[in-house]
Amino acid sequence: MQLKGKRILVTGSSGVIGRVLVERLMRTGADVLGIDKVPPQRPSEEARYLTLDLAAGTPQAAMEFAPQAVFHLAASFERTVEKAGYWKTVFENDVLASHRLLEAMDSLAALEVFVFASSYLNYDPALYLDVPEVRMLKESDQLLPRNLVGLAKYYVDRELDFLRMTQKSFRTVSARIYRVYGRGSRDIISRWVRAALAGEVLKVFGEKNRFDYIFADDVAEGLARLAETDEAAGALNLGSGIAWTIADVLQILNLEIGGIRTSAESEVGPIESSCADMSLFRLVTGWSPPTSLEAGIRKVVEYEKQRQTLVSPA
After folding, report:
1. What is residue 176's three-state secondary structure?
2. Is residue 210 situated within a structural domain?
3. CATH number of the domain within which 32 lies
4. Which residues, other chains included, contact 217 with Cβ-Cβ below 8 Å and sequence gap of 6+?
5. pLDDT tens digit string along 45-54?
6. Residue 85 lies in a domain
7. Alpha carbons 40 and 38: distance in angstroms, whole number
8. For residue range 166-203, what is the model confidence (pLDDT) as tens digits?
């Protein structure tokens, strides 16, 4: 499927992935409609936006837009240890909103592909928590959602599986995304960059954890590639394929910024050692995320320095 000239709906369009994806789609000549609960900070001049809560239902404007492709990124996220009351938030923002969107999109004859931003938290945590070596997680590995975020993603994945079995009108893809970081984000790397530039002490939890960090721009490109590849269907991992320790991240930050000060906080919970096996993604799309962790962090640092310059008083 070529995205050029297509009508494309992007939910979560104001998020760190959504912003980049909208820009990428606009460069291809697509007609883009973005939906988010918050308005975009830097809206594309060519894209259209709706500010609303999908949990209340899919708006008539989106139905009349009749998208030919949908990228469903809208979701809520919480740390592994979830706060009281988060069960309600994740149900409304992830499960209910996704169900209502799918129900609406299933009635559209024009729709060709539905790409869902799922999560590696679908996988059985016994595979990658407190294990001696990094686990390269495969799409065929056992599933057992780790927390409410994983559970919500798993539920939507199963709805997509059901649609794939019961109708053939449009293709469905679930991208199991790993640890995203990017410019203007709330992820831990971005928070550390902002703290370091402000001369603050970085609070470090779980120094022994090893994660697969993937730059948001690469996630956006990967999602677009999945939509463009007719052979892509079902669940596919979307990570960098490389596991990095917290110490690796801090070392890169120190090289980019210098004078990093850290405070090691008490270890909370099990130690994670997860990484995406990207073999299937490469086989299907012929593409791999190109941004190294060093290059990605450098882009975040440059972005935050520029932002600080813009907001600093003359």
Report:
1. strand
2. no
3. 3.40.50.720
4. 20, 182, 291, 299
5. 778 999 999 9
6. yes
7. 7
8. 876 899 999 999 999 999 999 999 999 999 999 999 98
